[in-house]
Amino acid sequence: MSRNAISDSALKVLYRLHNAGYQAFLVGGCVRDAMLELQPKDFDVATNATPDEVRGLFSNCRLIGRRFRLAHVRFGREVIEVATFRAAAIHEDDDVSHDKEGRILRDNVYGTIEEDVWRRDFTCNALYYNIADFSIWDYTGGVRDIERRMLVLIGDPDQRFREDPVRMLRAVRFAAKLNFELDPLVRKAMHANVALLGNVPAARLFDEFLKLFQGGHAQRTFELLWEFGLFDQIFPQTSRELEQDQDFARFVKAALQNTDRRVAADKSVTPMFLLGVFLWAPIRRIAARYRAEDDMTESQALNLAAYEVASEQQRRIAIPKRFTVPMRDMLAIQPRFLATEGRRAMKLLDHKRFRAAYDFMMLMSEVGLVDTAIAEFWTEVQTLSADKRNERFQVQTRSRARRKRRPRAKQANDATE
Predict the structure, then answer these.
(1) Which range in 29-38, 87-96, 402-411 is most confidently predicted, on average pLDDT?
(2) 393-413: burial string, b at 16+ Cβ within 10 Å, e else
(3) Active-site annotation holder among 33, 107, 121, 183
(4) Which CATH superfamily is domain 231-417 in?
(5) Domain-by-domain residue ranges, the chain?
(6) Strand 70-75 relative to strand 78-84, pairing
(7) Catalytic residue among 42, 94, 158, 245
(8) Helix or strand (DSSP H, E) at 302
(9) Fewer CB within 10 Å, N- or C-terminus of the chain?
(10) What is the mean pLDDT of the chain?
(11) Could you confirm whether 94 is annotated as catalytic?
């Protein structure tokens, strides 16, 4: 692989470790992507230097993690992750811990590169690029598996998934991103161990959700998650609705395709939007129940239902408030698009969530869930001048005298004086 594919920051880390007498390798996805002629985005370094020794070489370094102790070397906005070679725990006093299901809780047993390679997940991610002589070290047949575009797990798949059930989500993500086939043994183990995802902390699953659906391969990722029953583990409410509502299924598919188009066009994507899509059907169902039981507007019912559904979803994925709050606003706005007359309708254009809500409504229109005339109206009014908007919304412009009329309290004070 060419060194032109490696960031300058990663090269600095590699050479400083090498010059200090340590082994220094690029490892994982950056090597794999470079071999596939994809542009690597993240650069991970593996070394025989301990985290404390790495910190001693770099003033711009900090140590993180409890489960795996890592060094982060920061160059502006770029972070190079440096991990010490790990070995299997063989002594009682080794710094390793598992839960009753076999999931690794802590693993800081250091070793050699020959030991470290067997701790990695997939063969295509277990390739080491040696900065000393620019060679690639392959212990597991990763080069061959890349050539045949096959995702193969290192070791016994059942045991590896029990150690870390998130590896099933990683398998889906890599298969979707790289257009790889899943090894038959991996497929069998995934079907057998899907329930283990229920043992994964909700905070960790949110991080995986971002990687799964914001990498530009959301549609294929969803298809694989659904095939193996993994989507039901992370979005159970959505899964039930998808099985019963074909219109909702078409809406979700359109949203996934739209997300992939935006990523391909280098446009911004926010997890708030896709979360709103996934939770829309269960929110609408509960909102209808609220309206039947209490006297409230549709927007109020949607807001309340969104709070309830999001709270339930938090049991599986710990969604930060910075995403749930705007999501609730975006969904509660939807009924307001149906009103196309009056000053209140016109004020919707100034709502801070208007753009996201408009995009959401346009997606629903695309699959026939909102009248195209409504979509065309809101698309057109955004291009009009203020006067033209008044005409379209049939808003009567106040006379100049009326606009300048002083408050009554002011008039009374003037009279007294």
Answers:
(1) 29-38
(2) beeeeeeeeeeeeeeeeeeee
(3) 121
(4) cca-adding enzyme, domain 2 (1.10.3090.10)
(5) 1-149, 231-417
(6) antiparallel
(7) 42
(8) helix 298-313
(9) C
(10) 90
(11) no
In one letter, which amino acid is 59? S
C-alpha distances (whole Å) from 184 to each of 21, 151, 160 are 42, 9, 15
Q: What is the pLDDT of residue 407?
A: 56
Most confident stretch, 31-40, 94-103, 173-182, 381-390:
173-182
Give per-residue pLDDT as tens, 179-202. Answer: 999 999 999 999 999 999 988 999
42 catalytic per annotation: yes
Candidate from 2-11, 16-25, 49-58, 223-232 with smallest mean pLDDT? 2-11
b/e sequence 53-81, b meaning 16+ C-beta within 10 Å: ebbebbeebeeeeeeebbbbbeeeeebbb
CA-to-CA distance for 249 and 127, rounded, in angstroms? 39
Name the percent of the chain lying above pLDDT 70. 89
239: tokens are 């899964």
Q: Using an 8 Å Cβ cutoff, are 13 and 24 in contact?
A: yes
1-149 topology per CATH: Beta Polymerase; domain 2 (3.30.460)
Q: Do 320 and 354 form a contact (C-beta atoms < 8 A)?
A: no
- 243, pLDDT greater than 90: yes
116 has catalytic annotation: no
Dist CA 124 CA 127 (whole Å): 7
**181, 175 Cβ separation under 8 angstroms:** yes
pLDDT for 94 equals 40
44, 116, 183, 232: the active-site residue: 44
Q: Are 1 and 30 in contact (CB under 8 A)?
A: no
